[in-house]
Design a protein that fits this description.
21% helix, 7 strands, alpha+beta
């Protein structure tokens, strides 16, 4: 699933099943640390990310919309239009990287996803065990490992 660019440093890329990047659906994955389990941890995180339950995706989209509305006007020419459905917010943001937040395979699956919104704000989210822990600009502060 992950195409490793530099396996010794834990850097690779994968195709996202749902979230997009600016130029497609390929996102980077970073699994930093000293554990020999990190490649397996990264695979588990990517697998979980690509199979997020619909309820989690809906919660992410709702919170992304809240962030866009709070940040509306950061970028002068951006104004969030009325959205037909919660997932329509994904037309106004993109994601570039998944950061693995596990040390070994026995840990709960946890990761941060980094992106940006058209409203001019770095935006991301932190997921732990298929639960939305945080959505907003400070997503990396939730990382315990890496």
């Amino acid at each position: 699933m992950i195409r490793w660019k530099q396996q010794e440093t834990g850097e690779g890329e994968f195709d996202s099943q749902f979230f997009r990047n600016e130029d497609g659906n390929t996102l980077c994955v970073y699994a930093n640390g000293d554990s020999s389990d990190l490649m397996a941890c990264a695979e588990r995180c990517v697998e979980a990310f690509n199979h997020l339950p619909d309820a989690v995706i809906q919660e992410l989209c709702k919170q992304l919309t809240d962030c866009a509305q709070a940040g509306d006007g950061l970028e002068e020419e951006f104004e969030l239009p009325s959205l037909e459905n919660p997932q329509a917010i994904l037309e106004y943001c993109w994601f570039v990287a998944l950061y693995v937040d596990m040390e070994n395979e026995d840990d709960e699956i946890a990761y941060a996803v980094e992106g940006e919104g058209e409203w001019g704000e770095n935006i991301g989210f932190y997921i732990q065990n298929n639960r939305v822990v945080y959505v907003g600009p400070d997503y990396l502060t939730y990382m315990k490992h890496g």
